[in-house]
Every structure is written in structure tokens, then in C-alpha cells.
Design brief:
heterodimer, A: seven-stranded mixed sheet, 17 helices, globular, B: 48% helix, tryptophan biosynthesis (chain B)
Chain lengths: 421, 299
């Protein structure tokens, strides 16, 4: 017993929720508690069941393409103070981002519980596409909630989800973006919870989602830790990842939580700049409160109303953040910094031009953080960056940003200030 | 929040035990419970009416609530507009969005409660938790009590997470109305009943607020189960919109909670006077329904 407590005190990586310090919990309608309890119980059983973990590993190998490789990027690193920069290539996964890691686990769990329908929220469409993919693979009915604004901006991802057999429901309430898509998915879940599992896309939401999604993403850091040790012969000085809800960041951070010499750096979307009010830098500029089922940092006004976030990256455009990040920030184990749209797009262009890799704009925030911290630490430093997704989905946004389109001037970007994908 | 990293999922039961201790040591009787028992003695259920603060505007929402009381509503629920109302259907969502767009502020609820409470009806505030957390849980309770409010209905706050609110409501003698749902286990019905002060809000069906043509049989079963789990007073909400539904629910519950059916006439009315007239008509119909209930079946 004493030993266990000592181990718990010493390890930051064994926190199973529902609380992470003062954050987390289950701030949801009572109607959902039975389903959350069922999910939690089944997940606790599944994660130690070799049939479940073995099947998930088989899918990772034969379907997702894991382990994902790491790539050292020396030409990019010249822009980062000459530090050694190593990318963890989650962009090479099937469906193009880390989202598939989580979704395959939750889809397997859905089958195990015996539910036949899955719902999910999506912002840019990456989690929606991953969920639609898993639903096709596992023969589940699939409904994706997406803010109407986002369906317009991400028409191609809407088509992708529909090709995969999912129903995409445009959400016309509130700000018509990701936050409202989550509200609508929660309303669906309250109504259809007997047949339906909610495949939540990030490490936010009520318990058990923050701990469960983290566990399903933890493979990123477990692989990367070994890969960096093999490549460099030591642990990295810094692990950098972008943070919206925070699933790719928690996924890569976790294997390093108990390595005190490794700095964990979360990069939040600062949009036009934190001081402009048009941003999504939740930990940097928010305050603790309750949103979407958990207590965590969030962007809120003085009445506790959720504020709209802004970012060029739809995947980071969320006014909340996972409770474990709020905890890691509060105990100073991880550091969170803001990266503006302009900084992210500069880093995006540098990686394209120096390494021939087009990153997701979300991941470009992590790259910008690597440039910043590489310059601070100099050539002796090793910086591991989670390249959480690829930029195919962002080509149009980037082309507009860099003014690369030759089309009708009447449709020029200048007309769409604040375009967010 | 009195949570710690060592807290595990299993501790929710302990919290519930604590809350039941707190309840049993509570001071003066709940005003809402007192009213419900008076009506029970008269042989009928209460009609509980919901309207959101600030819709169509601040004064309009107060006038509408008073009109509702004049037309036969016994207990008033004032909804605090919130940006992310996950338990509400489209009608209440649009009213709340308009209230927020009109500049409704959290602190305005206290003045509104004071005016509506002057009618003599107990006034509860229905609110998602974050605005209360942001205002300060104890400060909110203090100001609500000072305004003559009866307590809070908290759709996204379960007793397991409500430590601070349970303390504050005890300190300021306020009701804390928690919800139960058809999916609640017997253990949760018991812990929720024990933590509640005032009445238990039984959600008639799985879902969000809104009118439904049929309520099914789950509501009556849930009320019976909730009573068996230790609750004295149980009111039923979600989906009730017509007089015959109100009569049906009034035959087995202590109160019939109606929201959307009161909000809709205000949303659809051409002008303020027409809205109030339509609202009054709906309230009179539901009040008659509640009074016509055959209570011999269950009591």
C-alpha cells in the first residue's frame, strides 16, 4: 500500500481520472452517467484483455501503418538554431493524422459493448473522417456532427465522410463550429444512448474520455521514445506538440512525463495574437471552468459564457482543452506557449520548402514552437516534434494565405478575413 | 472543487454518503417542498413553468413569468441563458440564443427573481453550472437567497460533482434540484434523492427539452422507482406540452414541469401583447389539465 502510494506520487503517468488535480470530472446530465459508467467499466476490462489489445495492435500494424517512422529534418533545423529536429510522422497514418489511433480503439470498444451506432463531432473533418473510416471497417452506423461553418469550409472532408458511408449533419446552432457540433452530438447521445456510442475525438469531455483517449494515443510517445533513443542515443531535450483539445500532445508527452530532463512544450493557437482576443490559446489566456463535461481551462467571458475561438487551423479552433493538460500546466510539468497564425504559416512553408513535407496547419504550430525553442537552446539540443497530420486538407487555405491562386480576383482571399479552413 | 489526484471513480459513492449526511442535517424546510406538500394536501400536483431570463428581453421575461403565475402556474423556473445548453432542444435554444444576443447578463437574474417571487410563487433558477462557478458558487447562493429565490435546478451538475453547491445551498437555505433519468441505476436514484432538497426532477424520457406527442410509460415507472429510492417529492419534466399529458403526469407525480410549450408562443407571437395572451392561454390549459388529473389510481 505504501509502495503503491509512493509510486503514484512519483509517477505522473499513472493518472486514470476522473480527476487530474482539480481538473476533469463528469459535468454532464444524469441521463449520460450510466453510459459513461458502462464505457469506463468495459474499457477498464478491455485494456487488460489480450484479445482487445492484440486486435488493436494488429489493426495498427496492418491497417493504420504503425509504427509510424521518425524523420530527422536537418535542412528545417537550420531555421531552428541548428538544433537536431526529429519529426514523429503521424501524418503518414491511414486517414492522414493521429486521429485514427483513438478511433480504432473506440470502435473496437463499441463492438465489444454491443452498440450498433456511433456518433462523433468534427471541426476540420479529420476526426470525422477517421470515425467514418472505422465505422465502415466495423460495419457501424455513423453520424458525424459538424458546424455548418465548417461543412462549408471543409466541403471535401464532408464528401470524404459521405463516401465512407457516414451521415454528416450540419449544426446550425450557436457559433456553428466545433463547440456547437459537440453540443449537438451530446444531445444525440442523451437521446439515443441505448444504441449509440459517442466516439469522442480528443482528451477533453467527461470521464472516462480524457484518460481513455490518452491511453489510445499514448502509442505515439511510446514509439517515439524508443526511436529517438535509437537514433540519437539519448532522450530529447524538448518534446513539442500542438494543443487544441490536446490528444496528439498528450499522446506524445505521456511516455516522457516521468523523464524530468525532458521539457514538454504544448503550442496553442494564438490566431491573430493573444492580445487581439481572436485566438484559441486556452491555457495561455483562459480560466478554469466547466465545458463539455469537464472542469478545465476554457475561454469564457466574465459571466462564464464560452467565447468563440479563432485560428487558421480548424483542428485547434476550440475554446476548451483537455483536463490533463490543465493539470500538467498547473504543476508546471508541461509548458504551453501561443503560436500565431502567421508564425504557424511561416513554419508550414519552411517545412514544405526544406524537407518536401506538407504538414497539417495544426502541426505547423508545433513546428513553429520547435523553431522558437531550437533558437533558444542552440545546436546541442534535440527537439522531437509530433507531426500529427498531413497538409492535404489545408492546401486551399495555404494557397490563399500565400496568395498562390490564379483565379478570378473577385474570389480573392482578401474577401475572407479570418478564413479558418 | 474538493477533488484530488488520488480520487478514483469509486469515490462517487462516498461523496453520495456525505451528501446524504449533509441533507439530513439541513435547517429550515424547503419553500418549494412546502408548496408541493400544500398542493398534495389539496389533492393535486403542481404546475411548474419554465421561461428563460432575458427573452424576449429582460422586462418581457419577468412579465411573462408573472403572467404564467396569474394563469395558474404554481412554481416558476427561470432559465439562465448559457452559450452551450446541451440539455435543451431547438425551441429553448433559439430563445436562449436571442436572450444572449440581447445582452442578458447573469447578475440580472437576481432582480428578476425578486420581482417574480413577489407573486408568492416559489422561484427556482435553472442553470448550467459554469455561470454559477464563474460568479462564485457561494456568492451566487447568497445573492439568490437575498433575492428571495428558492434554489437551483442544475441539469449538468450531478450530486457527485456538487460538493461546493451542496455546502452553499445548506448555508443559504436553498433548494438543490438534481435530475434523475430513465437510465439511472437504483443506486444513483438513492444517492440523488438523498442529495436533493426540494424535489427530484425526473426526466420523463431520454433526451433534451421539447414537446413530444407521447410520453410512454417510463415516466410513471421512474417516479415510482425514485420514490422507492427514498425521494418524497418527484416532479416530471421533458416533453410535456398538452393539457391531457399534464393531467396524465399529474396523476402520478407531485409536479408537472413544462418549458418548451411556454416558450414557443413567445417565440412565435407577432408582438409582446399577443405573446403574453398566447402564453396565458397555454398556462390556463395546462393548469386545468393538472387540476383534472385522476389521482385515485396512484394514491
Amino acid at each position: 500500500m505504501e509502495l503503491d502510494q509512493a509510486r503514484l506520487r512519483d509517477s505522473l503517468a499513472t493518472n486514470e481520472g476522473p480527476y487530474f488535480g482539480e481538473f476533469g470530472g463528469r459535468f454532464v446530465p444524469e441521463a449520460l452517467i450510466a453510459a459513461l459508467d458502462e464505457l469506463d467499466l468495459e474499457y477498464q476490462k478491455a485494456k487488460v484483455d489480450p484479445a482487445f489489445t492484440g486486435e488493436l495492435m494488429r489493426l495498427h500494424r496492418t491497417y493504420t501503418g504503425r509504427p509510424s517512422i521518425v524523420t530527422e529534418v536537418p535542412r528545417f533545423a537550420q531555421h531552428a538554431g541548428g538544433a537536431r529536429v526529429i519529426l514523429k510522422r503521424e501524418d503518414l497514418n491511414h486517414t492522414g493524422s493521429h486521429k485514427i489511433n483513438n478511433v480504432l480503439g473506440q470502435a473496437l470498444l463499441t463492438k465489444r459493448i454491443g452498440k450498433t451506432r456511433v456518433i462523433a463531432e468534427t471541426g476540420a473533418g479529420q476526426h470525422g473522417v477517421a470515425t467514418a473510416t472505422a465505422a465502415a471497417l466495423f460495419d457501424l452506423e455513423c453520424v458525424i456532427y459538424m458546424g455548418e461553418e465548417d461543412t462549408r469550409r471543409q466541403a471535401l472532408n464532408v464528401a470524404r465522410m459521405r463516401l465512407l458511408g457516414a451521415e454528416v449533419v450540419p449544426v446550425r446552432t450557436g457559433s456553428r463550429t466545433l463547440k456547437d457540433a459537440i453540443n449537438e452530438a451530446l444531445r444525440d447521445w442523451v437521446t439515443n444512448v441505448e444504441t449509440t456510442n459517442y466516439v469522442f475525438g480528443t482528451v477533453a469531455g467527461p470521464h472516462p474520455f480524457p484518460a481513455m483517449v490518452r491511453d489510445l494515443q499514448r502509442i505515439i510517445g511510446e514509439e517515439a521514445r524508443e526511436q529517438v533513443l535509437d537514433l540519437v542515443g539519448r532522450l530529447p531535450d524538448v518534446v513539442a506538440a500542438c494543443v487544441g483539445g490536446g490528444s496528439n500532445a498528450i499522446g506524445i508527452f505521456h511516455a516522457f512525463l516521468d523523464d524530468p530532463g525532458v521539457r514538454l512544450l504544448g503550442l496553442e493557437a494564438a490566431g491573430d495574437g493573444v492580445d487581439t482576443g481572436r485566438h484559441a490559446a486556452t491555457i495561455t489566456a483562459g480560466a478554469p471552468g466547466v465545458l463539455h463535461g469537464a472542469r478545465s481551462f476554457l475561454l469564457q467571458d466574465e459571466d462564464g459564457q464560452t467565447m468563440e475561438s479563432h485560428s487558421i487551423s480548424a483542428g485547434l479552433d476550440y475554446p476548451g482543452v483537455g483536463p490533463e493538460h490543465s493539470w500538467l500546466a498547473s504543476i508546471h510539468r508541461a509548458e504551453y506557449r501561443p503560436i500565431t497564425d502567421a508564425q504557424a504559416m511561416d513554419a508550414f512553408q519552411v517545412l514544405c520548402r526544406t524537407e518536401g513535407i506538407i504538414p497539417a496547419i495544426e502541426s505547423a504550430h508545433a513546428l513553429a514552437g520547435a523553431i522558437e525553442v531550437g533558437r533558444e537552446l542552440g545546436p546541442d539540443a534535440v527537439v522531437l516534434v509530433n507531426l500529427s497530420g498531413r497538409g492535404d486538407k489545408d492546401v486551399e487555405t495555404a494557397a490563399r494565405w500565400f496568395d498562390l491562386l490564379d483565379d478570378d480576383p473577385a474570389e480573392k482571399v482578401a474577401e475572407i478575413p479570418g478564413e479558418q479552413l | 472543487m474538493s477533488t484530488s489526484p488520488e480520487t478514483s471513480p469509486g469515490t462517487s459513492r462516498e461523496t453520495s454518503r456525505e451528501t446524504s449526511r449533509v441533507t439530513s442535517s439541513a435547517g429550515p424546510a424547503s419553500r418549494t417542498a412546502e408548496r408541493l406538500r400544500e398542493l398534495r394536501a389539496e389533492g393535486r400536483a403542481a404546475l411548474v413553468g419554465y421561461l428563460p431570463l432575458g427573452f424576449p428581453d429582460l422586462a418581457g421575461s419577468v412579465d411573462a413569468a408573472k403572467a404564467m403565475v396569474a394563469a395558474g402556474v404554481d412554481i416558476v423556473e427561470i432559465g439562465l441563458p448559457y452559450s452551450d445548453p446541451v440539455m435543451d432542444g431547438p425551441v429553448i435554444q433559439s430563445a436562449v440564443e436571442r436572450a444572449l444576443a440581447g445582452g442578458t447578463r447573469v447578475r440580472q437574474v437576481f432582480g428578476a427573481v425578486e420581482e417574480i417571487a413577489a407573486t408568492g410563487a416559489p422561484v427556482l433558477v435553472m442553470t448550467y453550472f459554469n455561470p454559477v462557478l464563474r460568479y462564485g458558487v457561494d456568492a451566487f447562493a447568497r445573492d439568490l437567497a437575498a433575492a428571495g429565490g428558492a434554489g437551483l435546478i442544475t441539469p449538468d451538475l450531478i450530486p457527485d460533482e456538487a460538493g461546493a453547491w451542496i455546502e452553499a445551498s445548506d448555508r443559504h437555505d436553498l433548494d438543490r434540484v438534481f435530475l434523475v433519468a430513465p437510465s439511472s441505476t437504483p443506486e444513483r436514484l438513492a444517492s440523488t434523492a438523498a442529495a436533493t432538497r426540494g424535489f427530484v426532477y425526473a426526466a420523463s424520457t431520454m433526451g433534451v427539452t421539447g414537446e413530444r406527442t407521447t410520453l410512454g410509460t417510463r415516466a410513471a415507472a421512474l417516479v415510482a422507482d425514485t420514490r422507492a429510492a427514498g425521494a418524497d417529492l418527484v416532479c416530471v419534466g421533458l416533453g410535456v406540452s398538452r393539457p391531457e399529458q399534464a393531467a396524465d403526469v399529474a396523476s402520478f407525480a407531485d409536479g408537472v414541469i413544462v418549458g418548451t410549450a411556454f416558450v414557443r408562443p413567445l417565440l412565435e407571437a407577432q408582438d409582446r401583447a399577443a405573446g403574453l395572451a398566447a402564453l396565458t392561454k397555454v398556462a390556463e390549459g395546462l393548469a386545468a389539465g393538472v387540476r383534472s388529473a385522476d389521482r385515485t389510481i396512484d394514491r
